[in-house]
Every structure is written in structure tokens, then in C-alpha cells.
Design brief:
alpha+beta; Jelly Rolls; Arc Repressor Mutant, subunit A; 3 domains; four-stranded antiparallel beta sheet; 10 helices; 21% strand; DNA-binding transcription factor activity; AraC-bd; AraC family transcriptional regulator; Homeodomain-like_sf
Length: 261
Amino acid sequence: MKPSVKAWRPALSGVVEVLHAHFPSHAYPSHTHDAWTVLIVDEGAVRYDLDHREHGLAQAQVSLLPPHVAHDGRSVRPGGFRKRVLYLESDRLGAELIGAAVDQPEYADAALRHRIHQLHGVLVDGKEDLEAQSRLTLIEERLRQHLHRAITAPPDQRDPGVAQQLRDLLDAQLPQGITLDEASRIIQAHPVHLVRSFSREYGVPPHRYLTGRRVDLARRHLLDGRPPAEVATLAGFYDQSHLTRHFRKLLGVTPSAYARR
């Protein structure tokens, strides 16, 4: 069986590369990266040496390999392994945390692994910018907690003022939207706090609210007699298929069926 590899650079600030790969027999020689490597294994198991210490990674775990530290990699089982990797810019977590990652590079954290799995799905699709930004900022927060050995539950407090500011900003920026970093600078609040405050106050995360507003806008244009392909652009979707997917998910019908008389 031949190896299969898919690699790309997503349009997501902070992520320099995404890699999905299946290696039936390949073993990595010792090497380094200039980025933080966030690795999950979907099939098989991996054994690797990091800074001359042996580690293993199973399917229920997450591995975080720091930049500029030598490591190798090989399959534990004869059938090889299938993995997904996010390469984060070196300044996303900070050089001061490299030592902590060397000391403990694997985390048995189901919530973190699920968030990483979700982000990979969003990046494969490549059309949900705000969702990708929101998921990445929550992943990075969790990784920092692991590196600081201080896993804590999200604070149970509301911030309706910040939530309202973000909602007003999302409404004002329709249909094109706004990045989470831009919203953070304008509102003067950390991206994680923005996502959590909004979700608590309105019951949906910011990206889902933005999608709903875009669908509302698309409905108005459809009822004005505009064709779905044009409506997709006017409402802030990437293309007609992007519009159709979200329209059907929210309303149960396609844009064409909705406007049909």
C-alpha cells in the first residue's frame, strides 16, 4: 500500500500548514520544525523520540511538539498509522513554553482532541473563516493550560456588554464579516473571552450567529427575485454551494425551492 499525503496552507492566521497523511511503513528520521506541531493519530499508534526521550501517541491523545527540538517518528504496529497535523506559527504559544512541551508532549484530553478534530474539518472545507478562528483560539488556550500544568474549567461568568459589542460589530460588518483578531482589537477583549461571552449570552457561538444573519440576508435577496448564484455573493457566502449547504441546514429547503412561486 502506498502512502497518501495531503498538505496545504489554510487561510487561517497562525496556522502555517495542515497535513493529513497515511504512512503504511514510513519512519521519520530525526528532524526539527520551525513551528509548533499539534498531532493527532486516527489509525494505529506512533512512537517517537523527543530530545532523546521516548514517547508514544495513541488515538485518544494529543501530541504537541515544540519548534527547534529534534524528534523522529515510527509506527508501533505493522499496518502503519494515519495522522492529522496542525503546524502553528512559533510565536502562537511562545518560546518560553518549549521546555514544558519537551517535558510533557502528550495530553490525554478528550475535549482538546475533539476541538482539534473539529478544526481539521473546518479547514478541509475552507469556507468558514470565523469558525476556524474561534476554534483555533480555544485550542491554543487549552494547549497553554497544559503547558502551564493548570487545566481549569471556563470561568462561569457573563459579560453581556462585550457580547453586545461583538453582536453589534457582526451586524455592522454584514455581509463580509470580520476576523476574530480585528474584533478583539476593536472591543479590547481577548478572543477567547469574546467567543465565550457571546456564546453564553446568545446561546450560539459568533460564527453560527454570523451564518444565520447571512442566511437572513440571502432570504431577502431571493424574495427580491435574484438568482441563488448572485445571492450567495451578496450575502457573504463563498459560492452557491456554500449558501445552499447552510440554507438547507437552517431552513430545510434549498434557496431555489424557497423562492419558487
